[in-house]
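thought: fold this chain, then report.
action: predict
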Amino acid sequence: MNATCIKLISVVVLFAFFTVSCGLPPAGTALTPEERSNAQKSCIAQYTAGGAILGGLLGAAIAGRHSWGTGAAVGAATGGALAFLVAWGKCMEYYSDMRSFPVAGGAETAQRVGYTDSQGYVTKIENFNVSPNQLAPGKSVQMNGSYYVMAPQGAKEVKVTETRSVSYLDNNEWKDLGSIPQDVTSQIGTRSAKGSFDLPADVPEGRYRVTMRVAANGKEDAATREMLVKKGIAGIPVITVVASR
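observation:
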């Protein structure tokens, strides 16, 4: 099966991700540890099964009648591998949590960062870290960050959308695996954000990017950290920040 056919299987598998997720708890549902574990397993199983089945059917169709079995096997393997890679990203809400809370008001933040009303609306991530930045599959990653939202005098509260997302380096191309947006009502000032996410034991080795994005009043900022997932390595904490806009 040539590269074009495999790419076509990949497209079909990705399309399948919009057709599953039956019986899973709605986003934001409070879950017990047992319910969370069950939701993780169910979500991953649905996505990987759908990708393998559709990949197998398409592989068989492309291979033709005389190579039906081989085409189905290759298609299922290709679809299943891609499905698990993307399934974790699509199921991230059951593997990850993040909470933010205020740490400084508007006046204190304005004095610290030199904000004036003439700057208008400002949204700024000051730091974002993931730790460790080198780890083995099956481990947990901690996320820590802070940001501030400022507005001209008189504004008290603002709706903020905090989004965390994951991408994977596949054939020298960063592939978006999924994201989790959450809305909070925040006072003007500085907020701290903390959370974690778990890597399944079967997650593929390679380079990943974790991005925190904050949007408010039409202004947006983002910070990205990269991590290496490889079997048999000990976790190495991260102490620097890589930011992007």
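thought: worth noting. The longest helix spans residues 33-63.
final: tokens above.
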